[in-house]
From TrEMBL:
Belongs to the helicase family. PriA subfamily. This is Replication restart protein PriA. GO terms for biological process: DNA recombination; DNA replication initiation; DNA replication, synthesis of primer; double-strand break repair. The gene is priA. GO terms for molecular function: 3'-5' DNA helicase activity; ATP binding; ATP hydrolysis activity; DNA binding; zinc ion binding. Transmembrane segments: none annotated. Its cofactor is Zn(2+). Keywords: ATP-binding, DNA replication, DNA-binding, Helicase, Hydrolase, Isomerase, Metal-binding, Nucleotide-binding, Primosome, Zinc. It holds the Pfam family Helicase_C. The keyword Transferase does not apply. Zn(2+) 1 binds at residues 393, 396, 433, 436. It comes from the Bacteria. Residues 158-330 form the Helicase ATP-binding domain. The keyword Transport does not apply.
Amino acid sequence: MPEIQARAAVRVAVDAPQHSGLNGPLDYASEQALAPGSLVRVPLGKRELLGVVWPGAVEPDQALTLRPVTAVFDALAPLHAAWCRLLDFAAGYYQRSVGELASAVLPPQLRELSPDQLAARLRKLERKAAKAVEAAAPVKPALAPEQADAVARIEAGITGAAANRPVLLFGVTGSGKTEVYLRAAEAALAAGRQVLVLVPEINLTPQLEARFTERFAALLPEPLAIVSLHSALTPAQRLQNWLAAHLGRARLVLGTRLAVFASLPQLGLIVVDEEHDPSYKQQDGARYSARDLAVWRAHDLKIPVVLGSATPSLESWQHAESGRYERLTLSARIGGGALPRVRLFDMKALPASAGVTTALTAPLLAELKSRLERGEQSLVFLNRRGYAPVLHCGECQWKSDCPHCSAWRVFHKRDRTLRCHHCGFTERVPRACPNCGNHDIAPIGRGTERLEEQLAEALPGARVLRIDADSTRRKGELEAQLKAVHDGEVDILVGTQMVTKGHDFRRIRFVAAVNPDGALFSSDFRAPERLFALLMQAGGRAGRDAERDAGGESPSEMWVQTWHRDHPLYQALARHDYVRFAADQLAERRSASLPPFSHLALLRAEARTAEAAKAFLDAAAGLLQDGQVLVYPPVPHAVARVADVERMQMLVEAGQRARLQAFLRDWVPTLIELKRQHKAVLRWAVDVDPLAI
């Protein structure tokens, strides 16, 4: 080993504020040579921060003038070079500093611990991981031919017998995609590799974790061999699970979007379940897409990545159509179960009669009652929580708007509050109209809370349960409610999109979607894609038990109550025809030069006044000119004001991804300088590949 200088210089990725312009790693002096990926503490201004020693050399003569590294976490093995490459790529692509990104994705508790404290945690982890528990070998279900073909293809990528293109596993709801994931994971584990499985929502992690634990209890008997990574863990749990993955003790990691950055030195397979889900896109800070980074990470490591969905994102579908991704199809439900019959219920054909509402129509109530008498479970899906969207005064037309946002406050009857779902501002419901004093103020519209109440009134004796973000706030509530559904203690489940994703409800035979039309006329070009996916997923909760179908029970059904029965989206839904829907949508996108046929970025600005935000964006538009990049005029955000802050945005479009990236690389440093001139601007951010415009 070559002799080390007494005082070496190292590059360290540290979280420097964006406005400082310090986007790359900073140089520090060290008493010892440190391997890239080592965790250290370093001074920055008057603070001491966690940093990562970054690959790359420093000019040797600079070491004499540099500030020294304060502490080294030498008990912990350095982060792998592949992890550093992932961070470098993500920081460059999403226009953030590598230190900011590293700070955001490493466990928060690492910032608080000293090297000695971390060493103690590692010793505790070693003791915990040493106790193996014997378990019986699992009983595996037989694979359908399509499943077996998919598993064989993915296994060939794991063993190196075939070249690795990203795999799009296109399977109808209930077709056994999870079993394909389990078999593929088993092959990777048998080859001595680690496996990363990403899910879109935290509430799906425990359910999936239970299935993986049950399957691999015999193969992975050691504690911490299967761990989860998501924001609902305590800081101590998150650090423990991250360390287990980093040290190679955790062989299987399940997590939400943050887990794409997990340190996995022996990674051999990545699975992205429900790859179409918008939850994979981070909406603040470094606005990364975990799905896209999973594809990049697999390409970098030359390992398989499996993207699974019944309704793939149009970007992934287009990649499969062009041959960039390999498409594997599961076209039938396991056990021969039928997909629910979709009935489009035309609201215009409903006879006008007093007391009939647009959600609980007379035919829907009759069908729910019929299912109830047969002992079947039903799901009523409405994607709006709360009791009613707004309170309204019939005298002066006052509505319960939020004084801090350009949005309505939602009426929550259970705690008699008006709550803004954007800034959180909450007040007790007024006894009279605050504008004119009229005591007769009434709710307009409908949320899940009101629907739950009306169902209980209309169907006395029915056990009605509501699952949404309000009813599952407290720890353990969601798990308890899902268990009640699985155990048959619920007759009618009322829920938002939270209940449509991934849950295997064996007893549900009937699904009704009420008031879904709003998304048909949204200004967001992705709204139809999201609505179709949501309705397909909601319908997919019905009829998942093939034995009940075979037993002669009434067929599983999905009703969609719509005022636009002939809309192509609903017609494709009625045929369960995602392929036709995708073809129509892609043709529209191509003609309008929208993604995936163009590449977008948004520059967002926030200020106390709309004028200040617009002035910043107008100035930004004039900073750089590129004939192949189109910069549109600034417009207000869809919800223009939140918490008394005005929000404006400006769209940047290019035909080639590389052209957009080159433009942003030159543009962003000039924006940092521009912000110093526009002091009224509170925040600005670049969102690459935005999900909503």
